[in-house]
Amino acid sequence: xxxxxxxxxxxxxxxxxxxxxxxxxxxxxxxxxxxxxxxxxxxxxxxxxxxxxxxxxxxxxxxxxxxxxxxxxxxxxxxxxxxxxxxxxxxxxxxxxxxxxxxxxxxxxxxxxxxxxxxxxxxxxxxxxxxxxxxxxxxxxxxxxxxxxxxxxxxxxxxxxxxxxxxxxxxxxxxxxxxxxxxxxxxxxxxxxxxxxxxxxxxxxxxxxxxxxxxxxxxxxxxxxxxxxxxxxxxxxxxxxxxxxxxxxxxxxxxxxxxxxxxxxxxxxxxxxxxxxxxxxxxxxxxxxxxxxxxxxxxxxxxxxxxxxxxxxxxxxxxxxxxxxxxxxxxxxxxxxxxxxxxxxxxxxxxxxxxxxxxxxxxxxxxxxxxxxxxxxxxxxxxxxxxxxx
Length: 390
Ligand SMILES: Cc1ncc(COP(=O)(O)O)c(C=O)c1O
Description:
The chain is α/β, with parallel strands linked by helices. 44% of the residues lie in helices and 15% in strands. The chain has 14 helices and 13 strands. Pyridoxal-5'-phosphate binds next to helix 4.
């Protein structure tokens, strides 16, 4: 049977990691995979997660199955983190999922059950993995303009004009904050314009919130979600604890659904559990238990918020440092205006290859860089290599 299968090309980002691992240059720089890194280049377990793990070890009494919706206390705590005051609205329900990817996939399956073959509008560009995650559920893709590579900024007019044509019943995928891959986010005023448009047109937003706390703050980064939730009858939010709790491999995330009324939201929640049952049955428990412990303990929660602030501040500082280091070879100030871990440097594919082959600097072909991969030891080399290929 398996000889019928065709070999697939290596995943571009994972292939990049493998090439980086093989590179023997001691000064190699990895700006590829999207994980947070410290000044020392590590991705450590957060201190608050270590405390929560120690507590869990003492208090956990069973490894028996949980329900398809996962840990309901985690679901409530995460719902409050995302929706703020609106979290207690009975129109909102949250299902624990295997990471943000799991949330995107079960969300897409729910849309497809409600409207088989529905259109989903994604930003141009969007995170590459959105396409298989949403497309494999049967949704049809349409694109709305988003990033203007020439101006190196969001082209909000083009986005707005396109979304103004989206009909009721279509779904629009929005990045809640820290757009991956371009780092260009909507301002609060632009979120207000999108909310009015969604109300006027009747399309349903599906918000991907994978970096809450990495942009301007834990509360600030939820502005768009909360505004849309306060304005619209329906929406969906796929959230991830991979970055802000550092739980990448623990596969911890959630899908929240807000329906027009308590009954329809309850029906959607039941459908979601049935979808989960048919794909992976139930989500893994460990990461969600840790998030629950951190969010329910006011002191731990404060410490966690400080840890997130430290990661955010470091990324912002690195943006300043990189723009300053490149100032004599062009205007790279756009890097400081963007949010989260990613920016496009605006290099050609050939320049990206040259950076890799001649300078051991690794980034994806689009010249998207993970800002957190920069540190004071590699910044000068990085800036020198970029100048050399420009
Ligand atoms: C835009 C975006 N959405 C969702 C995710 C999902 O992350 P995870 O499944 O690791 O929680 C990521 C992770 O890189 C992402 O960048």
